[in-house]
Design a protein that fits this description.
The chain has 61 residues and is mainly alpha-helical. It has a single domain, classed as Cyclin-like (Cyclin A, domain 1, Orthogonal Bundle). 77% of the residues lie in helices and 0% in strands. α1 packs across α3 and α2 crosses α3. The longest helix has 17 residues.
């Protein structure tokens, strides 16, 4: 499941031309969040895109 989410976020990141550090930071955010909160499978994509949005706000601005 993690690999599928990672691949999808990679495609999104590439499509919007984000710097590679944004994807790395999003992965770190997801790992930290998922380590604390139990997330349903249906919500993983939402957590992933939220992490990517936060990472982009931090890195792209």
């Amino acid at each position: 499941m993690w690999a599928i989410l990672w691949d999808w976020l990679s495609v999104v990141s590439h499509k919007f031309k984000f710097v590679p550090r944004s994807l790395q930071l999003a992965c770190d955010f997801m790992r930290r969040y998922l380590g604390v909160v139990d997330v349903a499978r249906e919500r993983l994509q939402l957590v992933g895109i939220g992490a990517l949005c936060l990472a982009c706000k931090h890195e792209e601005v």
